[in-house]
Here is the input.
Amino acid sequence: MTVLRIEDIKSIIGQIQSIVSIHQNTLMELDSVMGDGDLGFTMTKAFNAAQEEAEKSEEKTPGKLLMRIGMIIARTSPSTMGTLVATGFMKGGKAIEPYKEMSSEELAVFFEKFVQSVMDRGKSAPGNKTIIDTLLPAAQALRLSVGEPLLLGILSARDAALKGLKDSTMMKAQHGRAAYYQENSIGKQDGGATVGTYIVEGFYQYILKQQHG
Here is the structure.
């Protein structure tokens, strides 16, 4: 598989929705330790709406659909994480709007703009125990894989995101409710960083299934 077309993106949104839904309780549990406990609910609600939009959307290009998905998430889940994820989809989609399909280059650009917009909107940076700590390594891995088959790139991105999640667990939270816990946040898995791995995982699972028929 060398490119992603509009129908592929629709299926990937569905794949992410499935992963988030399956792990709703996990996100609830993680968020109850260092947050207000509703992350699983808000992310499930967001991606349920995103999947519904993807299924009925008449957008013709991946970029425009991803932008639309961002707008739906923003409207459906106006929480802190919902706003950051929505911004990522909108800005990432905008960056590849002119293209009718996504090669490894456009996939890298999408994730680069996604994570950059999250950093800008959240006024955060790598190392602060957030979604950035999983999405930035994934974007960097995709950049290094440009020109390779999509499966190799997204596999590298998935591995990088999971390593980022493991590394971030030992970081001290600097943003949001988790920051109140300071030293006590060290050793605890961050819900937002976990959401980042689920987004990458959705792309990975879909591309893997297509590759192996």
